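pasting for the record
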Amino acid sequence: MIVDASVLLSALFPDEAQLQAQELLRRHVAGQEHLRAPDLLLHEVNHALWRAERCGKVSEAQVGQMLAALKRLELELWPLDWEEILPLARQANCSAYDAAYLALARRKGEPLITADERLYNTVAGQFPWVRQLGSEG
């Protein structure tokens, strides 16, 4: 199962998908799910945490704790060939970042789980293997 950065960020920050995100990560830690992502995930999460720290939502110490917790998840991270991302971004009419997750899901033949409602609404019609967090069962 492929997860995008929105799933990890939902697990870390209070929102309507937090409980579902935390449960998915618990299943991964327990060996009941195997979560993968493109290595881009680390950059996206770092960027989001830095933004949250800069606006005062979290402290530097809290960011350090969050990063340590994410490292302990031991997600399987995959490099992607940049040449496969742009055509998929065009096809799906989404960002190249989002297309990276789509590319890995398509390559591995696994569903992509996202908490990003905008992404889900944009691509779900074209890619039935994209699922919104909470409906991955």
